[in-house]
């Protein structure tokens, strides 16, 4: 009977620091880009990357030096995002009503400017149809598109990152691309593509 217990590697403090600098830090920008594509919020993306790197250092004994550090980090980030997403989806939205009330009761508020600010915010969000279509996909489909088509991971690497069989990666990617194609059909037609 095979023991499925994860292998633990023993590193000195100096070795941990060296591995962290040499193998993990070069992927910082790619990790931020992935986190931003998942969250679509700069602060949330930075928090997610920071959480990922803290976990990577804390659990570095689970990483085998010389293996694919980028895929290992992506897996930590993806799991952190999903866990955080689940927590947030179970919590009701939080609004500081005192702050809202204070703002609208202040002498500084100009109702016409407030309306214009909301219109400007919405106008800025409509700019990139592709990003909007990608963002509208379920997280499982969005993640495979990001990992494969934007980050260039192989099916094998994606299977490890997502902890699913390669066949599931292929079928999920196929379905995600079809969903994205459906969402972008009218936009493509308006741009002259058939």
Entry summary:
This protein is mostly helical. The protein contains ten helices and no strands. Helix 7 packs antiparallel against helix 10.
Helix- and strand-based class?
Answer: mainly alpha
Q: Which radius of gyration do the C-alpha atoms yield?
A: 21 Å
Mean model confidence by pLDDT: 80
Distance between the termini: 56 Å
Helix proportion: over 70%
Major beta sheet summary: none
Give the strand content: under 5%
Annotation, overall tally of beta strands: 0
| Low-confidence parts | 109-127
How do the helices and strands follow one another from N- to C-terminus?
Answer: HHHHHHHHHH
Describe what you observe in this structure:
By secondary structure, the chain is mostly helical. It is built from ten helices and no strands. The longest helix has 25 residues, at 166-190. The N and C termini lie far apart (56 Å). Residues 109-127 have low confidence and may be disordered.
Highlighted features:
194 residues; mainly alpha; 10 helices; 0% strand
Topology:
Layout: H1 13-24, H2 28-39, H3 42-58, H4 69-90, H5 97-105, H6 111-125, H7 129-136, H8 139-150, H9 155-162, H10 166-190
Helix pairs in contact: 2-3, 2-4, 3-4, 4-9, 7-10, 8-10, 9-10
């Amino acid at each position: 009977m095979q023991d499925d217990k994860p292998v633990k590697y023993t590193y000195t403090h100096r070795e941990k620091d060296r591995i962290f600098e040499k193998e993990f830090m070069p992927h910082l920008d790619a990790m931020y880009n992935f986190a931003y594509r998942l969250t679509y919020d700069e602060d949330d993306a930075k928090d997610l990357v920071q959480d990922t790197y803290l976990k990577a250092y804390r659990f570095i004994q689970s990483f085998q030096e010389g293996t694919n550090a980028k895929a290992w980090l992506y897996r930590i980030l993806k799991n952190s995002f999903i866990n955080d997403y689940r927590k947030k989806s179970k919590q009701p939205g939080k609004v500081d009503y005192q702050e809202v009330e204070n703002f609208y009761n202040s002498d500084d508020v100009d109702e016409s400017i407030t309306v214009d600010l909301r219109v400007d915010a919405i106008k800025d969000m409509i700019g990139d149809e592709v990003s909007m279509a990608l963002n509208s996909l379920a997280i499982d489909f969005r993640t495979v598109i990001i990992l494969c088509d934007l980050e260039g991971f192989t099916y094998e690497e994606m299977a490890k990152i997502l902890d699913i069989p390669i066949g599931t990666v292929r079928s999920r990617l196929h379905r995600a691309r079809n969903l994205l194609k459906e969402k972008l059909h009218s936009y493509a037609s308006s741009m002259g593509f058939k």
